[in-house]
């Protein structure tokens, strides 16, 4: 298995597939589609009418049991065209594979395909339907892939995310949600030396806003708020009439995240600088991946299976977001981090531990087999 896996991983890493490179992403989709068809999956592809992104790829295969299992991963990376040639796939003396996207998420994509192939070859397809979804734009917030994935996953019995395990081997049970906001402050320009009193200082309002926003963070509630970008004015001798703040808030619970958004909107409706006006635009809203009772049962099953396979991961709760957030928000029991062990994501030192592949693919295959019955009360 490990040699076949490494060969397939090398083939995908050799394809540049940055989020803004739809041709490259679609070359990855071509490779995956051919593999899915060879395994007997019915395959569909869609572009969602957005040529700046690659296609969404969905494979479906009927089993001989009950329950729908959705596996999902992403085909895009954060790397530039040409990086695959500059840093080709390699394996070092410690058995760590390297190359752009080797961990995030090409290793997970290959793991999902190999787990499905193992079950099909063994004739052990106890699910009602196995659905594999591969998206083109996870690294930029899934503007196309997110809605498409939610449409496919809605009503599924189990969802397994193919992002790789944490560097320490942990699986991911819960993730914070995140909202990106743009706050635009409108003031009145004036000569700063002659008649500043005729101006309405947008930058001053932005400064008040920044202090307010940063103070919203609440470690006890697992809430972070960050003004990541702030710009005001064009000249030193002009009272600035415009300021823009780019803000991110993250929280582990939807109620906390929605609550802080309400507080921000209320503050923006009542500027500190007389005459200033503030508009709020919500650029992206990714809900938290919260661990409900069924997700906890799924996590416990994963730990039990891992123990039988000879390794002992934990269930992590992390501040990072993935497409698992969007699926979990549908009420589908979801577990993340089911690819092999890797790290260094989004950097030139990204790595994937090939020695972890057999156990992790076996865990994934077993969850596909056993999780639907457990969560449907049949096991």
UniProtKB/TrEMBL annotation:
InterPro entries listed in its UniProt record: Bact_exopeptidase_dim_dom, Pept_M20_glutamate_carboxypep, Peptidase_M20, Peptidase_M20_dimer, Peptidase_M20A
Domain of life of the native organism: Bacteria
Protein's organism: Leucobacter iarius
Family matches, as Pfam families: M20_dimer, Peptidase_M20
The keyword Hydrolase appears for this protein: yes
Gene3D superfamilies reported for this sequence: 3.30.70.360, Zn peptidases
UniProt protein name: M20/M25/M40 family metallo-hydrolase
Coiled coil stretches, renumbered: none
Keyword NAD: no
Keywords on record: Hydrolase, Metal-binding
Stretches assigned to the Peptidase M20 dimerisation domain: 174-274
Matches recorded under SUPFAM superfamilies: Bacterial exopeptidase dimerisation domain, Zn-dependent exopeptidases
